[in-house]
Amino acid sequence: MIATPVIRSVAIVGGGFAGAAAAYHLAGRLPHGTARITVYEPRAFLGGGLAYDTEEPVHRINVPAVRMTLLPGDDEHFLRWLADSGALADDPAATTADGHVFARRSAFGRYVAAQLEPLLASGVVEHRKARVRAIAPAGDGRWRVEAEGCSPLLADVVIVATTHPSPQAPAALARALEGHPRYVPDATVPGALFPIRSGDRVMIIGAGLTAADVIAVLDAAGHRGAIAAVSRRGLRSRGHHLPPQEPFGEFVTSPARSARSLLRRVRRAVAEAAAVGVSWHAVFDRLRTQGSDIWRALPVTEQRRLVRFLRPYWDVHRFRIAPQVEAVIEHRLAAGTLTVDAAAIVGVERQEAGEIAVRLRQRRDGKTVEKRCDAVVVTTGPGHSGVLRSQPFLAGLAAAGVLQLDMVGLGIAVDDSSRPLAADGRPAEALYIAGPLARGTFGELMGLPQVTEHAIFVAEQVARDLMRADGMATSSR
Asked: What are phi and psi of 113, to 5 degrees?
């Protein structure tokens, strides 16, 4: 008698880029017909997520298209898709004067979705357009996944690939402006900027990538009022050095064991690069590629120190803005309709006719000044400390002791296989975290190449586990 093959069930919670990449690469590593992969994602298609499911034409990928791919080793895969799909013909502004392509973010989302289409059509991957409400042990080594409007699923393996939590506005701001028609606590929500009028004085809290997006969107919509971007250090995201240059420096040989020594090494590398005509961008490109090893060589206390004191400097140099967005910002700075201030909020009051008075303590001299505005937009980045409250199923798993925050405060604590660590320190079986929520252990998991690599790593762990259980060898695409 021929034994009926066991078809394993894998649930992936979150169908943005990390979840879609995990599904794609897992499917390519399992023998055909041995598993069914169910991706829970309320959006209409897989691969978009928070970053790439946007219809704003000025939202652009922040690296050249030649460095964006779902397939490591084939750097031009996305670039070829852009040409073949006609996406570039519909977006002439995507290509810079010197031939570099910075496509719309929505185009990259469609590209990822297109790679998943054959898997969806064949039934290897199923897309359930639903939000997961609960994940709990089923008592037989499997996990019970409950989602809105769906029957429960018993999964042999669960991969959590959800996005960052929403920004956490300064408490004084949130208390004073709750309900104000032009208070935007989360600029990533579609249509969040619609209430802002063309002549409004706008204060943006934060000055990184999201702030740059907000400025570009407002400018494209015809906004001509004054914009003040405020952050504690007054740092804004930098642009690119597009002429080709190789990554510069070496940081994993005898790696730094403290944040201070790492900073010294970076500064020394930047100076050495400048001496031979290489820009700082090349140093940060090397830091990016070696980021995981650099991070994991640091003790936890030094990781915390790095996050507290150096992360803002890292973010503005590592996560650069597209030239098209940079041009808008430079134009507004030159015109005097945009300022970037280093200050902390010390008080907020609502005035008559919707005006807002914000008291700021200036970083350079400690003096308190008051600025009046008509709208406030929060772009402070994810509220990492609230991740376990951001989704009901995460809160439930945390309450059951299955997972916990990492010791650095960036996401969920995981082991070297990316399995969440329970309250007693033991890893959960058949449960994995894919994407940025695992960065407390793996380090640099914000840029797309690193998210892709981590999704592949998780897919390999899951495939090996399933094949070991069934006595088979894994394959690869």
From this structure: -60, -40
